[in-house]
Write a structure and sequence with these properties.
about 100 residues; about 65% helix; single chain; 6 helices; mainly alpha
């Protein structure tokens, strides 16, 4: 488990494949790979499942949407256009939240 403020390790698809390949090729068991790599067995099992379903594409990291307002919060003086974009984005987010409640 990660400690407070600690970042989780980001694995590339190639790294994941290198880790699960011995299991897929029946060279090692998942518990052996878990002990060798110190990676949770559930995570390794999920990688194997994603690889079996989608191939290498399933091992690629998923993109997260992030905060759409972050680029406006870092600036102190926004132009008139940026202020309008910021307000528009806030209203869109509020609208989406209200749609989810109903």
């Amino acid at each position: 488990m990660a400690k407070k403020g600690q970042k989780y390790k980001q694995w590339t698809a190639e790294e994941k494949l290198k880790i699960i390949e011995p299991i897929i090729n029946f060279e090692k068991s998942s518990s052996q790979v878990t002990k060798e790599t110190n990676i949770n067995n559930g995570m390794i099992t999920r990688w194997i499942h994603e690889y079996n379903v989608l191939g290498l594409e399933g091992l690629k990291p998923k993109k997260k949407p992030g905060n759409p307002l972050a680029k406006y919060n870092s600036k102190k003086n926004l132009s008139k256009e940026e202020q309008l974009e910021y307000e528009n984005m806030k209203l869109r987010i509020e609208n989406e939240m209200l749609k989810k409640d109903t």
